[in-house]
Design brief:
The chain has five helices and no strands. The chain has about 120 residues and is mainly α. α1 runs antiparallel to α2. It is elongated. The relative contact order is 0.08.
């Protein structure tokens, strides 16, 4: 069983003071209940499933960690690429495309399709 960290405020359908659920739980609950039209019945069903199934709890916890770590890593890589790519003396995307081993028509089409 996960440690009990109480919420200070209402979080999604969890009242203040209830145990914090993994972020994936909150995202899935809100998307399916609101956007998917599951409503309160879905919120009750996923709550019961979460309370009764340690396997489901572990799955959502591991998914939260995986998504969180991978998106953080992706963000760091993108920040580095943007920072390095914006320095003087480095090639721009347009310059890289011009060096591609494809026909000049293809390069021209790619340049037209790019939004700068």
């Amino acid at each position: 069983m996960a440690p009990h960290y109480p919420t200070l405020v209402r979080l999604s359908s969890m009242p203040a003071g209830s145990s914090v659920r993994p972020p994936v739980y909150t995202i899935v609950e809100d998307i399916v209940a609101v956007n998917g039209g599951g409503g309160k019945a879905y919120r009750r069903a996923i709550d019961q499933r979460y309370q009764r199934s340690p396997v489901f709890q572990r799955l959502l916890s591991e998914m939260s960690w995986a998504w969180g770590l991978w998106t953080s890593a992706l963000g760091i890589v993108l920040i580095i690429l943007i920072a390095v790519g914006s320095r003087p003396g480095y090639e721009t995307l347009r310059q890289v495309l011009r060096k591609c081993p494809v026909g000049s028509e293809e390069v021209a089409r790619r340049e037209r399709d790019l939004v700068f």
